[in-house]
Amino acid sequence: MQVFHTKSKVILTCNKRLSPYLQEEVKALGYTIVRDFPTGVELNITLTECIKLNLNLRCASQILYCLKSFKANNPEELYRELVDMEWESLIDFSGYFSVTSNVDNPTITTPLFANLKVKDAIVDRIKDKKGIRPNSGSDANKAVVHLYWKDSEADIFLDTSGETLAKHGYRKIPGKAPMLEALAAGVIMSTQWDQKSPFVNPMCGSGTLAIEAALLATNRRPGLFRMNYGFMHILGYDEEVFFAERRILKEQVIKNIDLTIIATDLSEDAVEVSRKNAQTAGVDTLITFEVCDFAETKVPEGGKGVVVFNPEYGERLGVHSVLEATYKRVGDFMKQECKGYFGYIFTGNPDLAKKIGLKATKKIEFYNGKLDCRMLEYELYDGTRRAEPKEIKA
Question: Where is the THUMP domain positioned along the sequence (predicted)?
Answer without folding.
Answer: 62-160
